[in-house]
Design a protein that fits this description.
With about 550 residues, this protein is α/β, with parallel strands linked by helices. It folds into three domains: about 1-315, TIM Barrel (Alpha-Beta Barrel); about 340-440, no CATH class; about 445-555, Double Stranded RNA Binding Domain, CATH 3.30.160. The protein has 18 helices and 14 strands.
Length: about 550
């Protein structure tokens, strides 16, 4: 009965209008602010060193982030030195604004402003906790005393910014966060934020940022959305305020919090790549951005080389990208199920033939190539659960074998059997090896040595074969070469079957290309045996395919 000790710590908005619920999509990308180098870095078992932070910063700028919180300069020497390194080596692109964090404590604020000397533009981010639990248990202060902490910090920001103006042309913008917003009474959070705004007096030409963090997820996402809508409706200077969200993922709902919060009127998102951060992490900006992308909205961030982003992230943070991480994990596009593979293969073909400009392929919410993934190795994955459609698609796309529809089933069972007995996934090369070994140019127990033919009204063929260690010449007539060879096998070797399928095609383009043929024969017991033949000559390939089908029936 331990659940009885838990009570709801959030404060829903009474009679919330919930206008955001009538919207079904987000129309444009928010302003993105990466906090990987601050919130993400502070949560690592081994925080990044200076060179790793520089590499990560450069990755973030290449992806397209225009606002990057680079640290808490007053917190440690490494944080301070990193900011100075960026400024003194002129490593901050002109279109990128760095952001620094500070508690609302005088000596920390002063050191933060001191560290910013020489920067071209920056957001200085002020915070103090406002939640009921923090007021009661941590600070043991009244609402009025907590509000005064925020206001005094805001006033000091104004004073130090005025000194900055006298000595440089640095463009400073201010941000305020009522930390633990989700555990704060909405009317009190509004009172504190408006008091800070009254100090800063932002204008539409020089906006302030009010950041409303899900410091700890305490409620379902719709409760947060109502809180955001309430704040957006009642904040002073609304046309001069950027409303920002900073969701954490304690309940696993950070993406939902963010998307609903944007519908409710927010303008900006603070988060990290892959959701790194304290406890269960921050909101994953990659998921948010790619969700927009998948709905036809430009996310204004470039994740087209996801494998490289994963590689850098894993190396410098020593964290792992989960195999099922949306859009980025190694297996997120993988289809092992036979029915899924068949639907994907058919969907890809339909799109190519009917609507190449739009993406509606079953089971794939986005085109894997848009994030640097490869159909042949990342989508169709072969194991004992795979089906004929996926195996046939892989052989066609990777190696040019266009199997007859009914032959795909036989090849599929053969490949799955190999995977099942080996208890492992098969690579495309292993699938090809299985197909070639079991179906292509199979020459035991019946081996083809040579064939010669002449034409009158029919084709007369002499075939040299070896069977049971004995070489023979057999002959027959037919309405074509393959028919004549088949008749010779039946008349002289007593073979009983009906040839029901024959197809052929060039295996590769060019004058030196090989031909491949596929033959299906029905045996006296009603079963079907399939074979394939590959040769420089299409007639030889067709005869090899027939021999393969017959030999497989003997196996």
């Amino acid at each position: 009965m331990n659940y009885q000790k838990y009570t709801r710590q959030y404060y829903p908005v009474p009679d919330a209008p919930a206008r955001w619920m009538r919207k079904d999509h987000i129309e444009k990308a928010p302003v993105w602010c990466s906090v990987d180098l601050r919130d993400g870095n502070q949560s690592l078992i081994v925080p990044m060193d200076l060179e790793e932070k520089l590499e990560f910063f450069q990755l973030l700028t290449r992806v397209g982030f225009k606002e990057i919180e680079i640290g808490f300069p007053a917190a440690s020497e490494t944080e301070y030195e990193f900011l100075r390194e960026l400024i003194e080596r002129d490593l901050i692109p002109d279109d990128v604004t760095i952001q620094v964090l500070t508690q609302s404590r005088e000596h920390i604020i002063r050191k933060t402003f001191e560290c910013l000397r020489g920067v071209k533009k920056a957001v200085v981010h002020l915070y103090n906790s406002t939640s009921f639990a923090q007021r009661q248990q941590v600070f043991r202060k009244s609402k009025e005393e907590i509000l005064e902490i925020a206001v005094s910090g805001a006033k000091l920001f104004n004073d130090l910014a005025e000194e900055f103006k006298q000595n440089s042309d640095t463009d400073l913008r201010f941000e305020y966060s009522p930390e633990s917003f989700t555990g704060t009474e909405p009317d009190y959070a509004l009172e504190v934020c408006n008091a800070v705004l009254d100090v800063w007096k932002p204008t539409p030409d020089h906006k302030a940022i009010i950041n409303l963090p899900v410091t700890v997820e305490l409620s379902m996402p719709h409760v947060y959305a109502n809180q955001i809508e309430y704040m957006c409706d009642h904040l002073k200077y609304r046309d001069a305020v950027v409303v920002s969200l900073h969701p954490h993922n304690d309940r696993g709902c950070a993406v939902a919090d963010s998307e609903m919060g944007l519908l409710a009127g927010a303008d900006r998102i603070e988060g990290t790549l892959f959701g790194n951060g304290e406890r269960t992490g921050n909101v994953d900006i990659i998921t948010l951005a790619m969700n927009l992308f998948s709905q036809g909205v430009d996310p204004e961030l470039d994740f087209s080389d996801m494998p490289h982003i994963c590689e850098v992230y894993e190396r410098v943070t020593r964290m792992k990208v989960y195999d099922r991480q949306p859009y980025a994990g190694k297996l997120v596009f993988a289809a092992f199920s036979g029915s899924h593979q068949d639907a994907i293969a058919k969907g890809m073909k339909w799109r190519q033939e009917n609507d190449p400009g739009h993406w509606t392929v079953p089971y794939l919410p986005i085109d894997p190539t848009d994030v640097g993934r490869v159909y042949e190795t990342d989508v169709i994955r072969i194991n004992s659960q795979s089906g004929k459609g996926g195996i046939g698609y892989l052989l066609e796309q990777n190696y040019g074998y266009i199997l007859p529809p009914k032959m795909k089933e036989a090849v599929g069972y053969a490949v799955k059997s190999v995977s099942d007995h080996a208890h492992k996934e098969l690579s495309p090369a292993e699938v090809l090896e299985t197909f070639q070994r079991q179906f292509v140019n199979v020459n035991e127990p019946l081996q083809l040595f040579d064939f010669n033919d002449t034409r009158t009204t029919e084709i007369y063929t002499v075939v040299t074969v070896k069977i049971n260690g004995e070489q023979k010449e057999i002959d027959a007539k037919g309405n074509g070469r393959l028919d004549a060879v088949s008749n010779a096998l039946k008349e002289h070797l007593g073979m009983a079957y009906t040839l029901h399928t024959y197809t052929e095609h060039a295996l590769q383009e060019g004058s030196t290309s090989q031909a491949v043929a596929y033959v299906g024969v029905t045996l006296p017991d009603g079963k079907t045996s399939w074979g394939a033949g590959v040769s420089d000559d299409i007639i030889a390939a067709s005869i090899q395919a027939l021999f393969s089908a017959i030999n497989r029936s003997k196996g």
